[in-house]
Amino acid sequence: MPNRRVVKNKRSPTPIGEALDAFLRRAGLVRRIDQANAVERWASVVGPQIAAVTRAEAVTADGLLWVRVTTSAWAHELSLMSPRILARLNADRKGRIRSLRWVVGPLDRP
After folding, report:
1. How does strand 64-69 pair with strand 99-104?
2. pTM score, whole prediction
3. Structural domains of the chain in order of their starting residue, each with its CATH number
């Protein structure tokens, strides 16, 4: 008769969403993913007029969001608006965006 493993502690399978969430929390990645989400949310946070002349590109681990801007005039205007933009970006977030860095250049949108 072949050896059979006896499972004494039967559990229901964990849904993949719960397993992934638990892994991300254990790995300490929840805050970092939340920070990176600022790039995706950029256009909805700043609105269509600013989104038309900017593109959020990347977030560093320490919370610096790099944003490409079409002209230096816009970069200057947006630098004056930074506190308000940061407040909107950080509303209900775990991963804080601490500062914005404006880079002038073409947006190269697909």
Report:
1. parallel
2. 0.73
3. 16-104 (3.30.300)
